[in-house]
Amino acid sequence: MNKFFSDNVIEALNFINQFKNKIFVIKIGGTQISDEKIFTSICSNIKTLYSIGINIVLVHGGGKEISKRLLKVGIKSEFINGYRITSENHISEIEMILSGKINKDITLKLNNIGVTSVGLNGKDGGMISCSKKSLINDIDIGMVGEIDGLNLNLIRLLLKERIIPIISPIGFNKNGETFNINADQVAGSIASELKSEKLILLTDVDGYYKNINDKDSFVSKLNLDEVEKILNDNKLNGGMYPKLECCYKSVSSTRKTAHIINGNVKDSLLIEVLSYGGIGTMIYI
Amino acid sequence: MNKFFSDNVIEALNFINQFKNKIFVIKIGGTQISDEKIFTSICSNIKTLYSIGINIVLVHGGGKEISKRLLKVGIKSEFINGYRITSENHISEIEMILSGKINKDITLKLNNIGVTSVGLNGKDGGMISCSKKSLINDIDIGMVGEIDGLNLNLIRLLLKERIIPIISPIGFNKNGETFNINADQVAGSIASELKSEKLILLTDVDGYYKNINDKDSFVSKLNLDEVEKILNDNKLNGGMYPKLECCYKSVSSTRKTAHIINGNVKDSLLIEVLSYGGIGTMIYI
Amino acid sequence: MNKFFSDNVIEALNFINQFKNKIFVIKIGGTQISDEKIFTSICSNIKTLYSIGINIVLVHGGGKEISKRLLKVGIKSEFINGYRITSENHISEIEMILSGKINKDITLKLNNIGVTSVGLNGKDGGMISCSKKSLINDIDIGMVGEIDGLNLNLIRLLLKERIIPIISPIGFNKNGETFNINADQVAGSIASELKSEKLILLTDVDGYYKNINDKDSFVSKLNLDEVEKILNDNKLNGGMYPKLECCYKSVSSTRKTAHIINGNVKDSLLIEVLSYGGIGTMIYI
Amino acid sequence: MNKFFSDNVIEALNFINQFKNKIFVIKIGGTQISDEKIFTSICSNIKTLYSIGINIVLVHGGGKEISKRLLKVGIKSEFINGYRITSENHISEIEMILSGKINKDITLKLNNIGVTSVGLNGKDGGMISCSKKSLINDIDIGMVGEIDGLNLNLIRLLLKERIIPIISPIGFNKNGETFNINADQVAGSIASELKSEKLILLTDVDGYYKNINDKDSFVSKLNLDEVEKILNDNKLNGGMYPKLECCYKSVSSTRKTAHIINGNVKDSLLIEVLSYGGIGTMIYI
Amino acid sequence: MNKFFSDNVIEALNFINQFKNKIFVIKIGGTQISDEKIFTSICSNIKTLYSIGINIVLVHGGGKEISKRLLKVGIKSEFINGYRITSENHISEIEMILSGKINKDITLKLNNIGVTSVGLNGKDGGMISCSKKSLINDIDIGMVGEIDGLNLNLIRLLLKERIIPIISPIGFNKNGETFNINADQVAGSIASELKSEKLILLTDVDGYYKNINDKDSFVSKLNLDEVEKILNDNKLNGGMYPKLECCYKSVSSTRKTAHIINGNVKDSLLIEVLSYGGIGTMIYI
Amino acid sequence: MNKFFSDNVIEALNFINQFKNKIFVIKIGGTQISDEKIFTSICSNIKTLYSIGINIVLVHGGGKEISKRLLKVGIKSEFINGYRITSENHISEIEMILSGKINKDITLKLNNIGVTSVGLNGKDGGMISCSKKSLINDIDIGMVGEIDGLNLNLIRLLLKERIIPIISPIGFNKNGETFNINADQVAGSIASELKSEKLILLTDVDGYYKNINDKDSFVSKLNLDEVEKILNDNKLNGGMYPKLECCYKSVSSTRKTAHIINGNVKDSLLIEVLSYGGIGTMIYI
């Protein structure tokens, strides 16, 4: 046993030394937040990464929670190409759920296990300025935002003090309007701007399969050329396409790596980051 | 005209030099936020104070807005001694309105006029830890919090960087519960802890009148002994009592001043702070 | 009244914030120094500017005082083109009056009202090196100096410590000779070298009039092209020409502004600097 | 496997975070240095500890090597109570072997695997001042030194720069004499003076056995009281007594821990330091 | 010769190392300033001391020059107990000569040989505040000042930048009056306040003789007890008494040394400071 | 005498000020170390140079001592072109003598007179990496090293802390082999790399004579062109050729000076460095 012990430790140490003081942008999805056990385990992994000196920016989504709550006030959710149609009356409901509920739940959880955190949305410090997304198939999808610019001074300040910023995907414009943004895109853009060491998307699937029906076709590593080819082939199922696209853009800019991993598997975050083999799909340059 | 010009400027300069790099804790009420014109004017005054080097912490309430919104989801508001009875199902609605709506509206407004601001609640950075308020007249008023402790590291960090923290009156405990807190009390406690130069409560009235029906009985300055006597006399109308009490506690701790002013009067904030005469009621040691 | 109060203050604050930590080079003339009341008022204005964080270099003249004192030791003053004919025996008398009398009077006055000041002449710290001015109309005007070089290390050191240097217009050369220099030229050269925000010449007139006999022809602002034209037209009365020329040179170098104002009007310094309208003539780029 | 991986890593991380920037004083014996394979493995363990931010001071012995080399120049080694009788002619031979051969071998080895090291003895920077040890059983054991004082400025300087000092057990006095010192004592004294986190003695045995003949009587942890009792019982075999005594003194001073471990077991250093169970005997307060 | 060379250098080096970064307050008298050759040589010695890192404060007198110049404007000098009777009309003449003539001559000289210097009097930076000296033998000696307080912030600032302050013995009070002060007293008080390493009075005599008529009675060193006895004996000639008294006060405060040396002997300053034997009389604790 | 005193001191001060904080690389030969009196005097000179702020790197040889000691273990020394034939069995003997004996003797001596020193060889901090010198006249001269690269981080660190590094001429390669190097070459290379102010070779001769038999043909100064001509003429006796060559290379790189002086003459180091005339031969650009 001792042999494995020191081998495992020496393996992990390679990464620990390499990643110290580096920035990871981690996106956590609605599914992971709603399941108390999974959520607790992910927070514990975040604490471990934090404790070895990694600077973490956490971006969260909240799709299911939003749909559930909107129903409560009598609003039925509709989507086009994965974008939620967001009328002007809905946006403030959505902001309240994301920034006034989910965001503060995560913040409280992390602070209570000893990881200093601050819950923010894209308005804080003028972080995420947006414009309205254009029509999709001639349909106005409402207050869905396209990111125009990022001001990450506040994020940099917090990271320097070893505080984790937790960010809801809400943006603004100079006219005082509020926008709902795709959380993967927020995470990817922030990773690009910060030139972060890793972008990690916690999802409900293991990563990329060549053939979604063949468990043996799992792919651990994809370089940018391979990702480009997959995107062009355009045979992907709905969920994986935008995630690979997001990773592609981010890695093109950071020249580092992005990771799609299954957030529902225990310790997947640690194993992906600290072992040679990893557990999900890594996109590299 | 020139004569008045230089006299006014020289008068204001006395205060400008005195208050530079000092901290003001300002509490803004629901009324001021809902009236667009008043709100815009107060934000402009805050910008002026910020521009002369005053470090501002802004605490906001939101009573009316909360009641209105709760009604929308079918909840009727009830109060005892001015405290909102807050059942466990209501608290997350209240937090969403305060921290996900009002707070972010103010944040966006200030950022958009060039004053870097960050919207927070008491969970951020583990800022305001609470316990449940005890029964009032044998009635359990629910998730209303009593402030147990303040961790203002985050606030100090932001002030040092000239960023205005905007704080919703929401607290937490170590069990992960959320509490609604009186906003005046939050402002007063933060002022005490920061030993702030001024605590300023923006209200709907001019300040303290000896006789509420006699416009000529207005009082510009009260020292702590006078306030103590007024509180003991217990002849005050509902609203003024807790405000005077809050100022009393804060000034006892800071050994500086507290101010109750009419937020609805144009430039009241500037005139109170930068002229000898002031406009509201000042409580001093 | 309150309305004007906050309007005036907000107007002045624009300038206060703009000029903080900037350098003003102010030249004060003999007339202002000899009149006790005017002198006291100017010192008070300087204190106000100093208190809002402006770094001031004060240059003084002393024409009348010199003439009066020289008479006492039996010397009659003669001028050519505004330059005092300065024989070798006279120069040490002149230096004594400027640097041992007027300079120290100002220094004492400012220190005694709480503005830390140091009286210097161009020999201190090797500040102003000169050569002898060439003949004017074939006449040797003696020990009148042309500025060859400035070493402002000492001035920068004092300004950094918030000490006002007060400078007599006396220069030196490497042979150990002493020179009398025109005070406006000293102020202008220092302003150029320091790239000062403002050069301000306190004079006995209001500023520039298109027609000296027509009070309504006063001009508040002149750009460099306009000044150039006026200088070329060469219709100016004796006193204004060299002042405009001095401002022209300085503004050409600093790319900021120069001001000719009436030092005998109460608070003219404050009004010129802190109001939109100003009171004298401003030369800008 | 992944499960064990993250468990092992999380276990080790506890210690990694705890020991970062702390000082370990490690004593390596002659046996470990002479066996190429063991020596290489220990150097690799040192590199791992160094890489996680532990500041290491390495003290070495060299008994066997000295005896062997002395024989070459015709000198036979004699010992009393474990102290080598060191005539004045021998001391310079001993210093040459320790500081000119063994010390530089270790230095070269560590530098060549990327761990910046500097070989020193107690004369460098006036580090270890000694006096002559008193007679043992009326016999003068020669130039064997008792440590009088330590000047660790040089060691602190090197540690601050992340350089490992490697120290031969040689001291000096103000008369210019050279002394041979017991290496365990040098390590223990330095640990005491630096208030080091750990003193680790790499030996040829597993640690402390209650009964040396009973493999099951191994003791993993001893507190100071237990060590004191063992020392007073005085039933220990020759080698273990001075080592326990050395650990006792050091822990009494540092209020931290000392460790006796088997340097011949692979990765014993890593396992002792980074796992809860450890592998040798730990002495604690 | 080489032998003497290295002996002399090693002797001087002892003092050079000892005095580096220390402060010397040197008082130079009128006689030394008027003789061009002596003055040049002293300036050269000052440059040498400056170049080895000694921080120098130079105080000057100017008795003879003042008398000569006063005569020019028709004023005859009168003295009581060594104090110049200074009517209110005379004081501004005296200040002009000291601060506008002698002071600037020294400043120019030192700057021109590469020693950065600034000429000051006691008004600069509010340095020397005074009150009027009381009657001597019932005679009002006029504007002669007694030092009340020293503000040496400016001096410390200049010394830190390696600039030599050159100080005229002129003081002020809060009413704006100007006072003439004894230069030895100015030097002594500054030395006390700065806890300077040395106070050095350059005079016209070699130092202290037990018997003024016996060249062999010269005394190189006096401790404070001896000086006290000499002062009490009161047999000293006029000039030496106040100088010894001044040294006595200064050394009592600084716990360092004071020196009375003959400024007219070539290199006396260097020899006194850098050799064991010295050349004048040293007062020590 | 006083006259000479101040002249000598002023002469030396020119150099003292010039050389403060500069680096001197001094090579001391075996002869100087073996003679106790000479060695003591050189150490005292080093202390003087150190005390005036010169940063010294000391390189030592040890030829005679090595030969003597090798004989003791039965090895006879052989040389080709001045290089010691160094079989693999001999190199560790040589390293022990140089780094374990001579180096530590010098270190102890300097520390004991108050000059903080550290004894090193080329393995420490990975300082001197070597390759094997090629055959000379077809003869393999063994483990004699050619310097490939220098890593002087450790040296720079020590100099910054005012610690003198004392260096034995031993190098290493990445295979873990040890090499003997010519000490003059070590000194010269370090001087080049550090761009040291002076390289000083202490030898047994006065410097360079045009005609070795004519005492009057001594040459105090040689520029690089002259040295090049002498080297090309190739008429030099054995010892002087490599020394001049070494100085030539070093000065070509540093653009400063190198000095060959007689280490056996008292205070030769001081006289060469601190007087205009010097005592040995200086090579300059």
Features:
homohexamer, transferase (chains A, B, C, D, E, F), Carbamate kinase, 285 residues, acetylglutamate kinase activity (chains A, B, C, D, E, F), Glu/AcGlu_kinase (chains A, B, C, D, E, F), 2 domains, alpha/beta, cytoplasm (chains A, B, C, D, E, F)
What does this structure look like?
Chains A, B, C, D, E, F: The record marks 27, 243 as: Transition state stabilizer. Chains A, B, C, D, E, F: It is an enzyme of class 2 (transferase). Chains A, B, C, D, E, F: Substrate binds at residues 62-63, 84, 180. Chains A, B, C, D, E, F: Pathway: Amino-acid biosynthesis; L-arginine biosynthesis; N(2)-acetyl-L-ornithine from L-glutamate: step 2/4. Chains A, B, C, D, E, F: Residues 22-262 form the Aspartate/glutamate/uridylate kinase domain. The structure is a homohexamer of 285-residue chains. By secondary structure, chain A is α/β, with parallel strands linked by helices. The first copy, chain A, has 2 domains: 29-194, Acetylglutamate kinase-like (Carbamate kinase), CATH 3.40.1160; 196-285, Acetylglutamate kinase-like (Carbamate kinase, 3-Layer(aba) Sandwich). Chain A has 10 helices and 16 strands. Chain A has helices spanning 2-19, 30-34, 36-51, 63-72, 88-112, 153-160, 183-194, 224-233, 240-254, 268-274, and strands at 23-28, 55-60, 79-80, 83-84, 117-121, 128-132, 145-150, 164-168, 170-172, 178-180, 198-203, 208-209, 218-219, 221-223, 257-262, 281-284. Chain A has an 8-stranded mixed sheet, with helices on both faces. In chain A, a hairpin with a 2-residue loop joins strand 3 (79-80) and strand 4 (83-84). The relative contact order of chain A is 0.15. The model of chain A has no long low-confidence stretch (mean pLDDT 93). The C-E interface holds C 72-73, 92, 95-101, 103-104, 107-109, 111-112, 116-121, 123-126, 153-154, 157, 161, 163, 170, 172, 174, 176, 178 and E 72-73, 92, 95-101, 103-104, 107-109, 111-112, 116-121, 123-126, 153-154, 157, 161, 163, 170, 172, 174, 176, 178.
